[in-house]
């Protein structure tokens, strides 16, 4: 009984702190100017959860979980530093909102980057459970356990309104399919900003969970601390021992505002507010402690001390320094170990290979060397090995636990890599065609690209996303698209686009070793060099030790020095299939044309591009993408700005026609796309200046 009362008193102290924090923020609205939510009404279930988690566990809180953070041991002062966007904010260095934590502290549960997009954390959190399960299967030393070998659990916290997000269903589907060790804690306060539960959903989270076979579920009163503690004790024990998923729906009142910027009195009736106030967890816990014999004076002393401590913490946080302006560009990416070209690019006695095989061999070598590497996506498992046979034999060689199929879930395929990376697994994943990446774009933008920056460098996402791309042979409107401009509009990811065997293998190895997210665009028309004029993509495959750093372009065709000296030369800046259109067109102008293969679109080899343009004075930027508002046009603008004084002509751009998609008919497809003849015409026009 004494242990139980001690726990109740701890919870009471934390609830008093949370209440004092909310009151302090409300009383100082001009100072607390950044948008924030508080946990008022949700404290019981949050504290009951946080008190029972250990440093070897993983947690994905959501933006109202300040009480859970207090229960895990974070101080009010630390939370306030984030509230006020201060330099010493331990989570993001002043870059992210209140109660958007991340932590790698050895004495606390591990927390990856948390976004504000409701429900979006469920896929990365499930990815953490996926990673934990894999490390268990491996008996990997990367898996941290308790002092008596206790296995980790993953807790994913979310509001009930977010359960209607489609990506939540992808995560639940994968969790039950693979029986992952994850707890979905759903805090249901009946409101989604101004939308009531009755307006927004036909069922609550508990009822919804009933549709996922193999997902255990519980429904509890989340405003009662004792009930919440017992329920979470049961849920955590179940997942820790059985290694299966569970969903806990906790009914809670909403006592605060949705956020500081969306006031409860704007849309909630006095009757609704009064009904929620009757379920306040703090008076309930107070009454329970009195029943247990705790004196009123003791409880008052706890509350008074909490108020004083919070006032002092707030004053200290207000006085803390703001971030320095010069820190704003820090932690966009983590440093990569691959900064130089190394290894044997062209082994003696080697035989020529096609690009698809070079990629396959690179992945195989990676998986042989790194046990923590896995490869998954649609149809990449042992039965087919990818629709382009780009994963052929990998399933047989490494087993279904390392190479496996997923459902049609691009959001999960991409987003889970954030969670996998957070626990130490190194994922290589595939989106079947570039046109299919858009369902996964939310995860790429919201979770993956921002993780390193908003965690102040603590959680870069190591993921390699392979994407077959490009048009040829009547692939049609949903299998032929180019997406590089869309990808390049996202900051915090890297984009590579090899055009030959050696670059494919070297860049793939470097991309895997890069601790940051890399999207690798692989042109389907170059995989086997079946497109006329692309035989040079076939090369002797580099040795297993070969790596090619990202951000280094290549001169694939130099102009003759005499033509350059006499002003009869120009350069073509291109990548992918454009390299071969440029090479074919250049045959009509021997010595006049220099061709740069960018190889990496971000980071871009600007030094090579600008130096080349300045030397020739004339430039064509060539792409397969639809031209209007493309990366190629943006690059042309940058070239004009940096090379204006050396230019003898406008920077030309050439790309596909500005059509909504690539048409199926091969004549129409060819009409839309660039080709050697179109490039030759542009060269003639430029050289005439």
UniProtKB/TrEMBL annotation:
Fetch the InterPro entries from UniProt. DH_E1, THDP-binding, Transketo_C/PFOR_II, Transketolase-like_Pyr-bd, Transketolase_C
**Keyword Cell inner membrane among record annotations:** no
What is the name attached to this protein's record? Answer: 3-methyl-2-oxobutanoate dehydrogenase (2-methylpropanoyl-transferring)
Q: Which residues form the Transketolase-like pyrimidine-binding domain?
A: 353-529
User: Which PANTHER family does the record match to this protein?
Assistant: 2-OXOISOVALERATE DEHYDROGENASE SUBUNIT BETA, MITOCHONDRIAL (PTHR42980:SF1), 2-OXOISOVALERATE DEHYDROGENASE SUBUNIT BETA-RELATED (PTHR42980)
* Gene3D superfamilies xrefs: 3.40.50.920, 3.40.50.970
Enzyme Commission number, as recorded: 1.2.4.4
Query: What keywords were assigned to this record?
Result: Oxidoreductase, Thiamine pyrophosphate
Pfam families in the record: E1_dh, Transket_pyr, Transketolase_C
Has UniProt tagged this entry with the keyword Transmembrane?
A: no
Function per UniProt? E1 component of the 2-oxoglutarate dehydrogenase (OGDH) complex which catalyzes the decarboxylation of 2-oxoglutarate, the first step in the conversion of 2-oxoglutarate to succinyl-CoA and CO(2).
Cofactors needed by this protein, per the record, are: thiamine diphosphate
Any coiled-coil ranges, and where? none
Originating species? Chitinophaga nivalis
Domain of life, per UniProt, equals Bacteria
């Amino acid at each position: 009984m004494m242990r139980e009362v001690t726990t109740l008193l701890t919870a009471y102290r934390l609830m008093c702190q949370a209440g004092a924090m909310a009151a302090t923020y409300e009383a100082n609205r001009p100072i607390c100017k950044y948008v924030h939510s508080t946990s008022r009404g949700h404290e019981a279930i949050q504290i009951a959860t946080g008190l029972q988690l250990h440093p070897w566990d993983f947690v994905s809180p959501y933006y109202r979980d300040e009480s859970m953070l207090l229960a895990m041991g974070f101080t009010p002062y630390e939370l306030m530093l984030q509230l006020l966007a201060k330099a010493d904010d331990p989570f993001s260095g002043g870059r992210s909102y209140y109660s958007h934590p991340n932590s790698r502290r050895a004495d606390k549960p591990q927390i990856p980057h948390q976004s504000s997009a409701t429900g979006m954390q469920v896929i990365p959190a499930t990815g953490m459970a996926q990673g934990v399960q894999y490390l268990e299967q491996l008996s990997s030393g990367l898996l941290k356990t308790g002092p008596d070998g206790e296995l980790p659990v993953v807790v994913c916290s979310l509001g009930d309104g977010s359960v209607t997000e489609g990506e939540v269903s992808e995560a639940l589907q994968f969790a039950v399919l693979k029986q992952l060790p994850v707890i979905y804690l759903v805090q249901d306060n009946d409101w989604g900003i101004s939308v009531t539960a009755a307006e927004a959903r036909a069922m609550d989270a508990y009822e919804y969970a009933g549709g996922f076979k193999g997902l255990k579920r519980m429904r509890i009163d989340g405003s009662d601390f004792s009930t919440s503690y017992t329920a979470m004790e049961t849920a955590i024990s179940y997942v820790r021992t059985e290694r299966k998923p569970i969903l806990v729906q906790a009914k809670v009142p909403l006592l605060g505002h949705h956020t500081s910027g969306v006031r409860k009195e704007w849309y909630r009736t006095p009757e609704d507010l009064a009904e929620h106030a009757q379920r306040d967890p703090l008076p309930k816990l107070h009454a329970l402690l009195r029943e247990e014999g705790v004196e009123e004076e003791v409880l008052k002393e706890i509350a008074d001390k909490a108020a004083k401590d919070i006032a002092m913490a707030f004053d200290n946080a207000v006085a803390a320094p703001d971030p320095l302006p010069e820190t704003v560009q820090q932690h966009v990416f983590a440093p990569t170990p691959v900064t130089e070209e190394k290894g044997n690019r062209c082994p003696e006695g080697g035989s020529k290979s096609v690009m698809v095989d070079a990629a396959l061999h690179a992945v195989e070598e990676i998986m042989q060397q790194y046990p923590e590497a896995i490869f998954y996506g649609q149809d990449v498992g042992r039965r087919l090995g990818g629709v382009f046979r780009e994963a052929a034999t990998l399933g047989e060689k490494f087993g279904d636990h390392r190479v496996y199929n997923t459902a049609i879930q691009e959001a999960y395929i991409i987003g889970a890599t954030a969670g996998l990376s957070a626990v130490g697994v190194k994922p290589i994943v595939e989106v079947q065609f570039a046109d299919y990446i858009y369902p996964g774009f939310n995860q790429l933008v919201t979770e993956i690209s921002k993780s390193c920056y908003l965690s102040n460098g603590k959680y870069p996402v190591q993921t390699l996303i392979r994407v077959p791309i490009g048009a040829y042979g009547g692939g049609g409107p949903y299998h032929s698209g180019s997406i590089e401009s869309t990808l390049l509009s996202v900051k915090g990811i890297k984009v590579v686009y090899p055009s030959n065997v050696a670059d494919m293998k070297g860049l793939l190895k470097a991309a895997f070793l890069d601790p940051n997210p890399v999207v690798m665009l692989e042109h389907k028309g170059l995989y086997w060099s079946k497109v006329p004029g692309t035989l040079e993509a076939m090369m002797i495959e580099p040795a297993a030790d070969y790596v090619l750093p990202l951000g280094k372009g290549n001169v694939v065709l130099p102009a003759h020095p005499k033509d350059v000296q006499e002003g009869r030369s120009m350069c073509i800046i291109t990548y992918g299939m454009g390299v071969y259109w440029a090479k074919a067109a250049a045959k009509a102008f021997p010595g006049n044309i220099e061709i740069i293969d960018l190889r990496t679109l971000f980071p871009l080899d600007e030094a090579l591009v600008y130096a080349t343009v300045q030397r020739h004075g004339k430039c064509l930027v060539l792409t397969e993408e639809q031209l209007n508002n493309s990366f190629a046009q943006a690059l042309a603008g940058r070239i004009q700005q940096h090379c204006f004084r050396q230019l003898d002509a406008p920077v030309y751009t050439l790309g596909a026609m500005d059509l909504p998609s690539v048409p199926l008919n091969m004549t129409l497809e060819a009409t839309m796309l660039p080709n050697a003849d179109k490039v030759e015409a542009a060269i003639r026009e430029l050289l005439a200046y």
